Amino acid sequence: MNGLNNKPKKDVKILFVNCCLRKNANTKLLPVGLGYVMTYFKQNGYDFSLLDIDINEYSDSYVEKYISENEFDFVLLGTIVTHYKWVKWFVNMTKRTQPNTNIIVGNSVAGSLPKVFLEHAAADVVVIGEGEITALAAVDAIRENKKLDTVEGIAFKDENKNIIETAPRKASMIDEIPMISWEFFDVEKYFDKSATYFPGSKTKRMRSIPVATARGCAFKCTFCHYVFWNDPYRNRSPQSVIAEIKRNIEQYNAEYMQFWDDLSFASARQAEKLADEIIASGLKFYWNASVRVDLFSRSKLSAERKLEVAEKMKKSGCVAVGFSLESGNKEILKMMNKEIEPEAFADTISVFKKAGIVTNTSVVFGYPIETRETIQETFDQCLKARVYPSIGFLLPLPYTVMYDYAKANGFITDEDKFLDSITERQDICVNMTKMSEKEIMDEIKNGAKQLNELLKLNLTEDTYIRTKRYQNDSGMGLPDGKNNKKKKLPLDPDNISRNENDVSFNYSETEFELDAGEIEV
Question: To which H or E segment does residue 442 belong?
Fold first, then answer.
């Protein structure tokens, strides 16, 4: 890394990069994590440039040309770990093109496996965990020629090429983090790509914007990893959330707030508290959120109180909630560390349905003890609740119990190669069951067919599992950012190059983009 000899902040050249997880995706949302970090830098006296690859869908050749023609003191980026291969390419290309640039990488793509990442990518600093304060501290330290081992929450290589990981940074007070400023982004482009239909309408669309109401999760599932894993679960105060929503309405004419959290509400009381504050504020908007699958039963509420809370949520503007069943088998749920009863799933759906709120869920197949019978148990729960889930497969992610299990049992022998190969949750990237992939898929198709017929969704066998598109090109689109309008050729499954895609699932977003009133079951 290269110190800047106390170069004045105003003269420091910084580039933030917004990566593109899915090429040609129908929906794109403003990047919450990056937005927070950029806002924090701005409030602390730094100016910067933004290379927004996502909304512009720049090709790799465009990105490489941009880096070769523009010099920076710092380049900062971060994304989830399924984009490992691309980030590794970008970091190494940037360092090769601009050897004196200091490259800082955050989020799970590097923070969940700092040693592996630094061994294979020429980054200078990896930010581990919460990014705002740590990334700023790393930039300040390099600019002021201070030792990096004084910065908490990072990993880096010392002068002897040894990888050093500093002490963790204490979690910040969530209400003290500055409200995201979206002025750095082309907001109108994002509104065009994130518009959502008004409830009950298939023609009128709402301006949609993400709002983070919480950080982390109250639970530690064995297949899951999130950036705030080592921090306590934290919620912003209702007053803080409403202040941001009010700003979004007044400044951006936003009509739909997507509560963009790992877990928005862990308890019914928590959901009710925010709903009460929204109603009292007089603000009119729609919203969705992610909740616990046992939101009501965990709180041991009576049937009347459950419905009362759900109806308050509806009155305050809630149109959809999402939560994860994951499995209908108790032994698999135990292996997942889910700490739920499958029966709570149907109860929660029933309560929200009575209140007129759409429910969306996901399931995960492929735990080592998965069988034909356990797959059917999961579908039985969905049949009982009359809901079609987002179907995914177990993908061992770094810093999780199942990743360690996969390594210990020989399913992952070379971490770098494994991370290069992974795609997304809707592909079987690793099969750790005793079934063949065909047996797994046949059983899933059987269960999906039952649901399809029950709910009259008119899906086909090809769309039971919504695997996203693949492309043989390595770029993000055309160099000028325009989508390729050429006729699509049939895919050859034996000769296909898969992209590193999004393994995350925001449970408040239905996989079929249904809105309240569009489906009656």
Answer: helix 437-455
pLDDT digits (tens, 9 = 90+) for 464-504: 886 332 222 232 222 333 333 333 323 232 332 333 333 33
Q: Assess whether 81 and 161 both reside in one domain.
A: yes
* DSSP string over 310-360: HHHHHHTTEEEEEEEEE-S-HHHHHHHT----THHHHHHHHHHHHHT-EEE
Q: Is residue 406 part of a domain?
A: yes
The reply to whether 495 falls in a domain is no
Residue 121 sits in the same domain as residue 202: no
Could you give the CA distance from residue 224 to residue 433 in angstroms, rounded to a whole number? Answer: 18
Residues 297 and 353 in one domain: yes
- Do 154 and 224 lie in a common domain? no
Residues 6+ apart with CB under 8 A from 487: none
Are the C-beta atoms of 194 and 165 separated by less than 8 Å?
Answer: no
Average pLDDT, the chain: 88
Its domain, for residue 452, covers 195-463
Positive or negative CA dihedral for 338, 341, 343, 346?
Answer: negative
- Judgement on whether residues 386 and 255 belong to the same structural domain of the protein: yes
Residue 81's CB: how many other CB atoms inside 10 A?
A: 25
Q: pTM to 2 decimals?
A: 0.88
- Look at residue 431 and tell me if it is in a domain: yes
Task: Say if residue 158 is in the same domain as residue 206.
Answer: no
Q: Which of 24-33, 137-146, 184-193, 221-230 is predicted with the least confidence, judged by mean pLDDT?
A: 221-230
Chain position carrying tokens 């982390």: 216
Specify the pairing of strand 14-18 against strand 49-52. Answer: parallel
Q: Where are the beta strands (DSSP E) in 355-450?
A: 358-365, 390-393
| Burial class of residue 359, CB neighbours in 10 A (0-12, 13-18, 19+) | buried
137-177 residue pLDDT tens: 999 999 999 999 999 999 999 999 999 999 999 998 999 99
Number of domains into which the chain is organized: 2
